[in-house]
Automatic annotation (TrEMBL):
Keyword Nucleotide-binding: no
SUPFAM superfamilies assigned: S-adenosyl-L-methionine-dependent methyltransferases
Native organism: Salix viminalis (Common osier)
Keyword Signal: no
Listed EC numbers: 2.1.1.220
Listed name of the protein: tRNA (adenine(58)-N(1))-methyltransferase
Molecular function as annotated in GO: tRNA (adenine(58)-N1)-methyltransferase activity
Ranges that cross the membrane: none
Length: 214
């Protein structure tokens, strides 16, 4: 929308919702109409940054190596700003579910509101829990297809994560520091066997492991 009076600013206090028609100006004299749909890619670009977030390039990598498909049950810690969670929800739809946990109560509440506004709340359950200290709830023991950890001390959550996974489930820990990766790998050696891969690039390291019978 443009204001006919160049000396005034256009004030818009509403919100753009799914299905709204938005006029996008590509150039000075070129415009097109776009029907808005809240995709995970768009949400990642506009969400409120309560924490540092993962972007689509890394998210695509993670979902591929976690082998998440429709119907999967996924455990995530921590929720943070919900960027990854939204993409996880799309990946498990329509019959799967994502159970995501954050130790910060207000952050978890804000994430619930975001998931409701983006229409993925039926696929995501947000819990308030210190996974590093308490581990994942026992009710998910042996049920998870995939577990994702994005924690300051992920090695503390490795034993619990191992108990949650199905026999052929996959665990991924995302860490920005090599020291975190080293300590997590030590914990993995004590709780897993069948190390598949450790990957890293430009200051970021990722591990993906497959749980096998001990």
């Amino acid at each position: 929308m443009l204001c006919s009076d160049g000396t005034k600013k256009l004030s818009f206090g509403g919100s753009i919702k799914d299905g709204d028609l938005v006029i996008v100006y590509e150039k000075r004299d070129v415009m097109k109409a776009v029907k808005v749909s809240p995709t995970p890619e768009l949400w990642t670009l506009v969400l409120s940054h309560r924490t540092q977030i993962l972007y689509i390039a890394d998210i695509s990598f993670l979902i591929t190596y976690l082998e998440i498909v429709p119907g999967s049950l996924v455990l995530e810690s921590g929720t943070g700003s919900g960027s990854l969670t939204t993409s996880l929800a799309r990946a498990v739809a329509p019959t799967g579910h994502v159970y995501t946990f954050d130790f910060h109560q207000q952050r978890a509440a804000s994430a619930r509101e975001d998931f409701q506004s983006t229409g993925v709340d039926s696929l995501v359950t947000v819990g308030v829990r210190d996974i590093q200290g308490e581990g994942f709830p026992d009710e998910y023991s042996g049920l998870a297809d995939s577990v994702f950890l994005d924690l300051p001390q992920p090695w503390l959550a490795v034993p619990s994560a191992g108990k949650m996974l199905k026999q052929d489930g996959t665990l991924c820990s995302f860490s920005p520091c090599i020291e975190q990766v080293q300590r997590t790998c030590e914990a993995l050696k004590s709780n897993f066997r069948g190390l598949l891969r450790v990957r890293g690039d430009i200051g970021q390291a990722r591990e993906a492991l497959c749980r096998t019978a001990q």
